[in-house]
Amino acid sequence: MNSQASYPIGSHGQPWGAVEVADWRSRQVKRRSYAADVLHALEPLRERFDITEYGALDYTGEHYPLMAVRSRDWREELPLMLVTGGVHGYETSGVHGALQFLRDHAQDYAGRANLLVVPCVSPWAYERIHRWNPDAIDPNRNFREGSPSGEASALVHLLAPLHGRVLMHIDLHETTDSDESEFRPALAARDGKDFEPGEIPDGFYLVDDTENPQPAFQQAVIEAVAKVTHIAPADAHGEIIGSPQVAPGVIEYALKALGLCAGITGARYTTTTEVYPDSPRATPQQCNDAQVVAVRAAIDYALTHR
């Protein structure tokens, strides 16, 4: 049975309109607090970093300040490293991994690199453990000028002055069982298409850029993460999540053409992490640790191969 016949919103073969989006939005329940989990966690870091509000979102009667964390010893001659998390709000370790990196390791790069960390790009979705914003828009297909996503538009504007100056950008994500049980069926229903079942990979993997592949960089990150959690194997077709595996634990997407977050800056080194938190072989803390190790390995490689 395809998702259009089974998904509780919409009619088979018909893309959603405003009524369906409103119906979908009314079903989204706040399940955790951005203020408690993110804003509160940032407060102790103000002693060591410059923390600024780069925008704000007002959704469903709630106000969400968007926060960026910068190295306090910012120097123009230093290489710039960008870390983003929480583009998809339900991908928890992206947010908490970014915060853990800031708390425990970011100071290690003082005087060696300029760090810019945006730990939670999509706070409304973070609170509702969802992929989309309240307009049923996926920010991670809309990182471009004139974006319909407020989350994507705010980040694009933050980073626009830095285009061509970012050496490394790592975007922290997860692939979850709910991708297959909820989010992809919802996407098919929203777009009036049939749902094509897929396979969720068990383990960590990376997404490189088809237009600017950096295989040695990706391999360095994979090797570091393999010490913390297991790397996803390819499926019987030699693919991970429908894309050919180009190296162990690595696939490629056309980042900029697809409007993906990692394609914003034109950085030399880009990657998107994908942790699998639903694996019986991984704990939530292990997923956070994998994100932190990935960030550190990415920065270390970029510093060594400038």
From TrEMBL:
| Record-linked Pfam families | AstE_AspA_cat
What's this protein's family per the entry?
Belongs to the peptidase M14 family.
The top of its lineage is: Bacteria, Pseudomonadati, Pseudomonadota, Gammaproteobacteria, Lysobacterales
| UniProt superkingdom | Bacteria
Q: Which InterPro entries match?
A: AstE_AspA_cat, Peptidase_M14
Sorted alphabetically, which keywords does the UniProt record give?
Hydrolase, Metal-binding, Zinc
Write down the required cofactor(s). Zn(2+)
- Protein name in the entry: Peptidase M14 domain-containing protein
Any idea where the Peptidase M14 domain is?
30-306
Keyword Magnesium in the entry? The reply is no
Which CDD domains is this protein grouped with?
A: M14_REP34-like (cd06231)
The active site consists of 274 (proton donor/acceptor)
